[in-house]
Amino acid sequence: MPKTLPMIDMSAPVCCAPVAAGPMSDDDALHVALRLKALADPARVKILNLIARSDEPACVCELIPAVGLSQPTVSHHLKKLTEAGLLAREQRGTWAFYSVDPEAAGRLAALADLKGGTR
Q1: How many CB atoms lie within 10 A of CB 25?
Q2: Which residues does 14 contact at the CB level (< 8 Å), separation at least 6?
Q3: DSSP string covering 42-71, please?
């Protein structure tokens, strides 16, 4: 039987210092793992890459041909990336536009620092 992970507030900021900075609490480890899980899909990594390279926020309609997936699937991936705090969503009329959340990107980069800030 599959194990169900507990629900957490995914809108909370990424909490932690670099992975190598010191001991991490179970709660912090869970928050980090759920955010990293959002990136554990090749389509989401590609979507994040496309949005990060764009000078303007991207609409789902612009991403569909680039990733070769259906609109509902792309929307699902965008929702997961947004819930993980990696993308910012802006509503413009009936369309939603997505951009990389600069704070989340910085926190994620700091988290991945396996030297713990010491070089």
Answers
A1: 10
A2: 31, 32, 35, 85, 104, 107, 108, 111
A3: HHHHHHHHHHHH-SS-EEHHHHHHHHT--H
Tens of pLDDT, residue by residue over 35-91, are 788 889 999 999 999 999 999 999 999 999 999 999 999 999 999 999 888 999 999
CATH number of the domain enclosing 41: 1.10.10.10
Number of domains the chain contains: 1
Radius of gyration of the chain (CA): 15
Cα–Cα dist 45/89, whole Å: 17
Burial grade of 29 (CB within 10 A; 0-12, 13-18, 19 or more): middle
Q: Tell me the pTM.
A: 0.74
CB atoms within 10 A of CB 58: 21
**What are the tens digits of pLDDT across the range 9-39?**
544 544 555 666 678 788 877 877 877 888 8
Cβ–Cβ contacts within 10 Å for residue 8, how many? 12
For tokens 């629900």, name the residue.
7
